[in-house]
Write a structure and sequence with these properties.
It is a single chain. The chain has 568 residues and is of the alpha/beta class. The chain has two domains: 313 residues, ABC transporter type 1, transmembrane domain (ABC transporter transmembrane region fold, Up-down Bundle), CATH 1.20.1560; 210 residues, P-loop containing nucleotide triphosphate hydrolases (Rossmann fold, 3-Layer(aba) Sandwich), CATH 3.40.50. The strands form three sheets. Strands 6-9-10-3-11-12 form a six-stranded mixed β-sheet, with helices on both faces. The chain has a four-stranded antiparallel β-sheet with strand order 2-1-4-5, with helices on one face. A hairpin with a 2-residue loop joins strand 11 and strand 12. The relative contact order is 0.09. Its main location: membrane. Keywords: ATP-binding, Membrane, Nucleotide-binding, Transmembrane, Transmembrane helix.
Length: 568
Amino acid sequence: MPSLQLVKSLPVADPGTPDHRSPARYLGWLARTQARSIIAGALLGVVWMLSQALMPAAIGRAIDAGVAAKDGTALLTWAAVLAGLGAVQAASGVTRHRFAVFNWLAAAYRTVQLVVRQSTRLGATLPKRLSTGEVVSVGVADVAHIGDAMDILSRGSGAVVAIVAVAGILLAASPPLGLVVLIGVPVILAVAAPLLRPYREREQRHRELVGELNSRATDLVAGLRVLRGIGGEDLFAGRYRAESQRVRQAGVNVARAESRLTGAETLLPGLLIALVTWLGARFAAEGTITPGELVAFYGYAVFLIHPLKTIGEAASKLTKAHVAAGRVIRLLDIEPEIRHTGTARPDGPPGDLVDVASGLVVRPGQLTAVAASDPRDAQAVADRLGRYAEGDVTYGGLPLRDFADVRERILVAVNEDRLFSGPLHESLSPAGSPAGLKAAVAAANAEDIVEAVGWDAHVVEAGREFSGGQQQRLRLARALAADPEVLVLVEPTSAVDAHTEARVADRLAAARAGRTTVVCTTSPLLLDRADHVVFVDGGAVVAEGRHRGLLETEPRYAATVTRGETVG
């Protein structure tokens, strides 16, 4: 039953609003959001560690009151006390571990929720600000380090209390030994503290390089087919090999710093234990303490290794968590390029879609082609029309920024879009009708692809099993199957041959009859079949009309779409 209660307590809906002003504040916010389970784990950690700390005292009393005094009843009594302490330690240890695991899972899962929510909120802004490898590193490695920080709190709390308790017992029995412990522990922490900074810096550098290498690997896999085609596979493999060596060297540097820290965690407590044992033996020889107390002091000396190493482990894990939290808040600090979201959901037929910056006017129900002398201008127009970039755009006379359902009304399809893994028919149209999907596939001239693999064929990540031209046609089919109110296509036929492009151009207008469509392209085949062509030069509309008329009247347009070739 306790496990079921723990599972129910995991965050399942709203992870909350994090404090991401600094890594420490973020970790503190996480601790506060699950304060009850962390406090429970800390209390159980204290009981677990104290029950171990009291065992040497029970053994010492059993020796003095039972063995030395030859009192069987006292020996049995203290043996029972020792057994009771063992039972308490076992029960509290099991329960503490359950809470520690829960705290780890809750912190890691909450961070994953925040990262996913922020990634969804950022949309197209995210890949412009962070590489794919960095996002993967945050979602895999960094969340684990943050979970470790919440996990260590229970054992770390118990370790601190146990050291204080042992020091108190030693002070009561022998003030010099108690003072050695009280002074020795802060000295150990002070000596080990300077080792944390280089460790944290090297860990940060290693994490950055791992993120860069992940990005390189992602790009390499995504473009493997192209690299093989142009003979660049060996070149990029060499670059990847060189970068992986940099990551390896950075990992070695981290290991060196960590080994120094780990060595200090073992050596310094060992010196303290040796000092306590030596002093205890001298006091026993002088008769200052009893044989039982000597055995107890030795037991304390051995026991202190555990809490002191736990404190060192806590310092290491909190350092890693601080670095990881820094990467998380870096992602959380990013603001989307589009911040304002409207609330209007106007009814009525579609109206003109107007981009004020360029002067473009898209009439409802028409196929409008946008040809730009600079492809970046066409992309900028598409971004503003789809509200992926700020701009003064109106739709039906209303500012597009006031619309709450822009993504439902306007779909922008670019060649950077990816196919989703899963059955082909679900990748192209998760909730669409079979008839609509077949019509969309036909309009995109992708029937041969479907016939070759089948509707139920499994599409791997990003559709890597398809060629560039096949991917482009499938992406076009997906966009057409969505049947949006306004469809904006950016160079939808740039990767296909001329014959395929001609068929797509012939079918596109029929597939979008009565719907508003914008095609950003310089393809003469697509331009010739558009209802209206707009030529953009220097970011502004400088000419518009039909394709053949613009070829005769606008030399800049002719030079852009024919690339200097003679028009027949």
